[in-house]
Amino acid sequence: MAAGCRGNFRKKLFGGLRLVKLPFRPGAHRSSFEIDMTNGPLVGKTIRFAIPLALSGILQLLFNAADIIVVGQFVGPQALAAVGSTSALIQLIVNLFIGLSIGVNVLVARYYGAGQRKDLHETVHTAVLVSLVCGVVLIFLGVALSRPLLEMMGTPEDVIGQAVLYMRIYFIGMPVMMLYNFGSAILRAVGDTQRPLYFLFIAGVVNVILNLIFVIIFHMGVEGVAIPTVISQCISATLVLLCLVKSDTVYRVELKKLTIHKDKLLQMVKIGVPAGIQSATFSISNVLIQSSINSFGSTVVAGSAAAGNIENFVYQAMNAFYQTNLTFTGQNYGAGECRRVDKTLLYCQGFVIVTGLLLGNLVYYFGHPLVSIYAPGEEDVIRQGIIRLGYVARPYALCGIMDTMVGSLRGLGYSIGPMIVSLIGACGLRVAWIFTIFQMYRTPENLYISYPISWIVTGAVHILFFLYARKKAFALVRADSRKEAEGEHPVTEEQ
Which residues of 397-431 are buried (b: 16+ CB within 10 A; e: fewer)? Predict the structure, then answer.
């Protein structure tokens, strides 16, 4: 009986529903892991979708947090600074490629919502193959550029060697990291946020255990936390791929049919590359800010690294509602449900504001014990971490508002506009701040305050742009509805 239960669980986890017969109608056949986004009440469904996403993001962060905590506890402040100083640079290099997974999410959600099976099949297979190609490219970029870029950032001499070693090992795992992100984007697009959470939990437990074994038992340094990170990423990627391969669903992956369909790739690039560039612009400004932080010495670097890691947990909780808004908007727009697009935005904005205000202020209030986890007994480091939390974590809801607006824009198919706004409002404003205001008042506090200022300016412009984009996008839906009412039905593969 136990074996039978395990078999049923595996079938449920990696299986699902039978392949949908033509014509394909989303919602008519659906596994228990999926969510019907185009029908029924939205509030409960958005929460059900967002909570596993938030937990998944937090677990993903635990990979890096485990690295920082273990080296801070058992290796020392220099190793802590070495690992922490690489995060902004890693994000800068990786974000452009991760942006393509956003394009995958939007396309799969739209085709699934519209019931376009052939386009959905081609998008899924293109996405899996592209993820592996991107991962291989990232290996060469990360290994070759890690030292020169860290030197350009002014990384302190006493930590740069360890920082380079950590980055190079980390980038060896890029193919599996890309595969997990692209595969998860496919599952999210059809409403499945639970299985990626289960897979990350398994990988996260392995990561923490191996960190402790390599550092405490084998007395390894930063490499003792970098290698387990790569191993854990291999586990999560393998589980996601098995989920897609073994599921008898309309988005099933057949390895023999992996190929790059040029039209789908171009659409991914159209949506994903601007999204990646937008993320990269934030990373560029963060790298410049990190370079300025490096000028204050390893104590400030370590405090900022610890606080930044804590802030990321708050960000992931808010980011879940950005991804929820992105996916729900994509499916409902594909199905022509404009009113549900508006309702999704309103609900997600409400949730993200409450989440940001609550968690941002909680981590500041408990700043001392939280930063102490990363740097036990290092009061100077702890004090620097609390300073950053006050300027960045407490007003973090502003960042959530900004990102959630971008989710609506991308879900409607607008990606270049948000990229341009972010180039000017985030990267441009922060860079200008560093070379003007910061030069007059060279303090860490003067760097940190540039974050909430840029969120306010960029978020306001995103709201104005959304009002313009919404009008055009909804007009297209109304025009299509009129044509359909007049009998001008487009011929689809199912027909």
Answer: bbbbbbbbbbbbbbbbbbbebbbebbbebbbbbbb
- pTM of the entire predicted model: 0.78
Residue count (the chain): 495
Strand partners, 29: 26
Of 48, 264, 397, residue with least CA distance to 40: 48
274/267 Cα distance (integer angstroms) = 11
Rounded distance between C-alpha atoms, residue 275 and residue 471, angstroms? 22
CA 378 – CA 48 distance, rounded (Å): 40
Q: Cα 205 to chain center, whole Å?
A: 20
- SS3 per-residue string spanning 165-228: HHHHHHHHCHHHHHHHHHHHHHHHHCCCCHHHHHHHHHHHHHHHHHHHHHHHHCCCCCHHHHHH
* Positions of the chain with pLDDT lower than 70, given as ranges: 1-32, 63-65, 283, 484-495
pLDDT tens track for 139-182:
999 999 999 988 887 888 888 999 999 999 999 999 999 999 99
CA–CA dist 100, 171 (Å, integer): 18
- Residue type present at position 428: G
Residue 87 amino acid letter: S
pLDDT at 488: 54
Residue 492 is predicted with a pLDDT of: 39
In this prediction, residue 413 carries a pLDDT of: 85
Q: Which of 463, 439, 138 is nearest to 288 (CA)?
A: 439
- Extended beta strands in 359-468, E state: none
- Rounded (5°) CA angle 154-296-91: 50
